[in-house]
């Protein structure tokens, strides 16, 4: 038997097990796990290293215009390179529809942008204009392309689609076996708080935290879950940041609702004190929902540990600390005019490993589940997410002992700051492999622009309970009758 690559002598960590084995790769796939094999054109010595599935980043904004027209600083080349240096082998950024745009055009636009990617990729489709044409024809076509997640917003004037819009999207999603994702914050509360703070002249970056209260997230998560329960459609809550929101997710999971969720490194690493840095420095930490406090961090870590969250995702939103990004609307501007979002696609996994695994908050197996395996399962990435014969050879080999201080340079993105600057973390992804090809090796990029491939995703599992709707209205009845696009 001819092998392309053997990863030799490593400690393999999957979402379930830790064991010693060699990994055999041929034609981009894992073909065998076995002890002490010889041969292989390429032999990687992984002695003393942890060999894990590469990260699957399920929340990133790459080459995406905001509704206000600001283009993020990372395109699919710099974004994927940064992700690769952070130990990822696949990512699923967003393809965002803006009002008036056809979803077919949106996908064509992102296909052109993503052709630069060094990583395998798919998109979650952001839907801001759920017209009958979009719901009945364009979304089913997106599904046919293998794009099996749609995202709706409950906040932002130019993005939110209202409760009925969410229900319409979830109904289509349920019919085809698509996961609906939601940005859950109460739009009215945020708008009202912004007006009150503005009246009082409280516009420094630190007031961003007050403007988006915990209750705004808690209320919207509760409402979004209620909408999903009305039609018994699965729902994924992105970037949960509050104790109250996480508690609702946990309670509904226990009760059997098909609810999935993630949190992000910023809610585990930063607090509102960071928003209060001198001058406009706090603008670097403006993201929505906002960073909270230390007590919330401890509670969120507890939820990470107990399985409330499927994933810890970066929500990489690269707005530079200059007039192309954060200060697109001016330099000394009130917080609502600052572009919202922070970078973190390269820091996500080093932070989760160092602060999570090495500080005893999660196991190494949980780390693998949170960084890759659960995202693969939740978003229909069927041939990735596990070190298993037949699966893509997407692997990250980590030195679990190397200590380093985070710098902007080692993020390898197109940003002019990292919020993680100066943080001391232990554990470095030394070698990252996508489809059997080494893409990063000890600090050097080995990938060629455009070598990543589009991943056709499968429907999410819809073989659950019937919905609460009358039979005639229940989209799952059509689904079961075999009416598929
Ligand atoms: Zn986001």
Which helices and strands occur, and which strands form pairs?
Elements: E1 5-13, E2 18-26, E3 29-34, E4 42-45, E5 50-53, E6 55-60, H1 76-85, E7 88-96, H2 103-114, E8 120-121, E9 124-126, H3 132-144, E10 149-153, H4 162-176, E11 179-183, H5 187-199, H6 207-211, H7 214-231, E12 235-237, H8 243-254, E13 259-263, H9 265-269, H10 272-275, H11 294-306, E14 311-312, H12 348-357, H13 364-378, E15 395-405, E16 424-434, E17 437-441, E18 444-445, H14 475-480
Parallel strand pairs: 1-4, 1-5, 6-7, 7-8, 7-9, 9-10, 10-11, 11-12, 12-13, 13-14
Antiparallel strand pairs: 1-2, 2-3, 5-15, 15-16, 16-17, 17-18
Helix pairs in contact: 3-4, 4-7, 7-8, 8-11, 12-13
Bound molecules: zinc ion.
Residues 59, 61, 315, 317 line the site of zinc ion (ZN).
Low-pLDDT ranges: 464-472, 478-485
The hetero molecules present are: zinc ion
Gross morphology is: globular
The DSSP helix count reads 14
Rounded to the nearest angstrom, the radius of gyration is: 22 Å
What is the highest CATH level, the class of the domain at 53-378? Alpha Beta
Total strand segments = 18
Give me the CATH architecture of the domain at 53-378, please. Alpha-Beta Barrel
Structural class: alpha/beta
Gist of the model:
This protein has 14 helices and 18 strands. The chain is α/β, with parallel strands linked by helices and 485 residues long. Helix 4 packs across helix 7 (214-231), helix 8 runs parallel beside helix 11 (294-306) and helix 12 packs across helix 13 (364-378).
List the defining traits of the structure above.
disordered C terminus; 18 strands; binds zinc ion; 14 helices; TIM Barrel; alpha/beta; 485 residues; 21% strand; 9-stranded parallel beta sheet; 9-stranded mixed beta sheet; single chain
